[in-house]
């Protein structure tokens, strides 16, 4: 019931309220595995992608969000599932492998999986170097990669704001990228790096952001 409410009730309400400008939605293949690779501006980017993409999209979500107690905890877990979240532990190498496997399963089943190659949201507005997990998924599943650029989403819930605000937002979907030419070479780190860089360049072309060829530190990481 909740997935239907999200798709046919909540989705239209959100779109009517925020009136997002959506470009290139026709670039999303109507069937088959699709990997959406997006820049990351704000915590609510996932919701924006969910409500502007015609197909159901799956994302990774922190496992602790799904383990709440009581009625509230169960409702939260079901709501997140309806929004497309997949619970995954974070913080260690095994968690990273589990995350990739969760995405791979969605894609091998012919679904749509979204990923933020930067690994965390950009705190300075620039586009940072992508992690190669996006390439590993694309190469191992044969999924088409659709680059996505988000604009203005950081204005929906600025730092310190508890309640989402109205903001002018835009989502731009690029033409799908096909990496079939690298079939069978997903174990090559050089190929994964090359594919990742190609995906990041496509996002850069869509977003117009300044590019930084270094990984973005997570907000909770201390500077070394």
Automatic annotation (TrEMBL):
InterPro entries: Plipid/glycerol_acylTrfase. It comes from the Bacteria. CDD domains: LPLAT_AGPAT-like (cd07989). Transmembrane segments: none annotated. Keywords: Acyltransferase, Transferase. Residues 34-153 form the Phospholipid/glycerol acyltransferase domain. GO terms for molecular function: acyltransferase activity. This is 1-acyl-sn-glycerol-3-phosphate acyltransferase. The lineage of its organism: Bacteria, Bacillati, Actinomycetota, Actinomycetes, Pseudonocardiales.
